[in-house]
Amino acid sequence: MKIAIDAMGGDCGLTATIPATLAVLEAYPDITKVHLFGHETAINKALDSAERILANPLLRQRLQIRHAESQVNMADKPAKVLRERGESSMFLALRALAADEVDACVSSGNTGALIGLARHCCGTFEDVRTVAICAQLPNLNHPSYLLDVGANVDCTASQLHQFARMGCGLVSSLYPLDQRLGQKPKVRALSIGVESGKGNQAVTDAVALCADDASMDFAGLIEANQLLMDDCDVVVCDGFTGNIALKACEGTADYIRSYAQQALSENPRQSSGVEGPSERLLQAMQTARFNGAVLLGLRRTVIKSHGASDAIAFQAAIEKAIILEQGELTQKMMKQLS
Q1: What pLDDT is stored for residue 82 in this prediction?
Q2: Which stretches of 228-307 are DSSP H helices?
Q3: pTM for the whole thing?
């Protein structure tokens, strides 16, 4: 497997992408090559001082640096990026993906630019009108997947229904279900109540479409306070609602983690006997572990890492790309949408 990395993207750039890439190469020996797109001199300098390279110089043999004269900045307007494109690290990485030189692409760069360039380079599945951003949410039983979380602020009922079908394709690639036993991804629609008819007209009409779709187990509506508690696989909503819900979850987790760290540091005697449980709590609240949103609807695997991703978060995004490719995401998505 070969992975393309937009090495210059995001707020942290090379300080996140290089350590994350090297950690993945150590953990996944079946990754034959990682293509690092960015300024060659800067990448080489970062590699020369990387601890993992110093400890294991052979890792460098599985890296290919592909020079890019420029990078897409977080403040760049997507329309301007699409018009000019140029030789940015993001565009070259996506072009390599479209040309089958790599199997997946990961970037922490400008979200709007990434979606636009990915559509331009890779194309979408037939009848897919809009690309959706799908984020992973932790759950007491298993992860669930929320979409859209920012690409489409206003959605029609048919778009929400299509998001549900794409989410089902994603789940099938991650957790193969036994179709012979009638297992189907469990889907809900995010709204302001669980009673029938709650929500706007788009949600109400989408509920009817999903309920009639035999490819999914549609379980009705879900409220935001149950997003991390309900035993469902896919939650659909428009991008405006989804982005707010996701950021609220992330902010709550960060608050609980910070509060717990502060409380434990102030009471070392209290925490000394519960090191295992307290550590598990802090890990559960580490949102970086769930980093890496999938751009669904594209013909190739593209992962959007959070713009502020550190090395741990970016590593999680690369690992998600690997898992999805191993699960044959694009093939199962094509089947789901046919």
Answers
A1: 78
A2: 239-266, 268-272, 275-284
A3: 0.89
